[in-house]
Amino acid sequence: xxxxxxxxxxxxxxxxxxxxxxxxxxxxxxxxxxxxxxxxxxxxxxxxxxxxxxxxxxxxxxxxxxxxxxxxxxxxxxxxxxxxxxxxxxxxxxxxxxxxxxxxxxxxxxxxxxxxxxxxxxxxxxxxxxxxxxxxxxxxxxxxxxxxxxxxxxxxxxxxxxxxxxxxxxxxxxxxxxxxxxxxxxxxxxxxxxxxxxxxxxxxxxxxxxxxxxxxxxxxxxxxxxxxxxxxxxxxxxxxxx
Length: 242
Hints:
Layout lengths: L11 H18 L14 H25 L3 H26 L4 H22 L6 H18 L11 H18 L2 H20 L3 H16 L25
Helix pairs in contact: 1-2, 1-3, 1-7, 1-8, 2-3, 3-5, 3-6, 3-7, 4-5, 5-6
């Protein structure tokens, strides 16, 4: 791993999550990400969407590897940490969309999970990943409702909920033996919620992500890292990937 990358210590998982969100949001803005929905139909348009989806997923996988390092243990640890960061961020966004109404947020999330499960069954997926992500987000909504209800609450999981989320991540990773599927699904579904929150334009999405990253980089001792037009954590081509 390049020395310029901070790894997943401290706020590293949050920064990695934001970088993946930017890649997924770019895919969403160009029609390459589905947000957990059904695949494109057959024909030229469907083939073009499949190509764009494959492109952003390849970039995201390489970006995640740049943060996690080599080896299966490092990959699993990174997948759990970044998926957790994405799920809690998605929970906060869902609560914002529903103006702090936890019941409304849960109902909306339940509909998305049911639709994703039905789509996975229709596609013959043996281990559907979106319902796992939705379950993680559900725990996040519960945590917000229990600790700091409101339209702009920050999701902070208590130790018990965090453990249950991590256990779900690890159980899926053991069954699927695919460290990237969980993280990419979390990034894609979170990007779809973010698009509803900010608008689907790439400029709005990037502005929101840059503001979030700047907040992390302005933490005590990190002020010298911020203030750039393009944050160092996710350049125009994330992870140096072109």
